[in-house]
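Issue 218. Parser rejects a valid record. Input:
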Amino acid sequence: MIEIYHHKYTFPKVLTLGFVFIILIGTLLLLLPISTKSGHTDFMTALFTSTSATCVTGLSVVHTSTHWSFFGQLIIAVLMEVGGLGFMTFAVLMSRLIRQRMQMSTKLLAKEAWNFDNLSQVNVIFLILRLSIAIQLLGSALLL
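Output the parser choked on:
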């Protein structure tokens, strides 16, 4: 159980709420006029695109290259990255980048999210991140 503002939540509930939060933030960013080439998109299109990108399904109701601006495409790419690696990966990464010690509840949530047997395996995440970045950079270089 994790306590947030005097309310207790189970680990699966926190993970689910985290994904919902990421999807809603993505939706709000895709609703901004700067996100589209025409300057406007409807709520359902932004919500569907944000959900699809976060859940890494790749579905879209509009043509990505003609409807979304560079900023919108960047938001979609970030949502795909967060969805693919998991938002807990980025939470752990951010805590490490600011040199903050992770609380035990965060470690337990990460252990639950990645299905690890013990907490010492959390360090494997940094290997996964480095490999992911290296493979993406190699793919980008090949596409160039």
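Fixed in the parser; the record now loads. The first strand starts at residue 2 and ends at 4.
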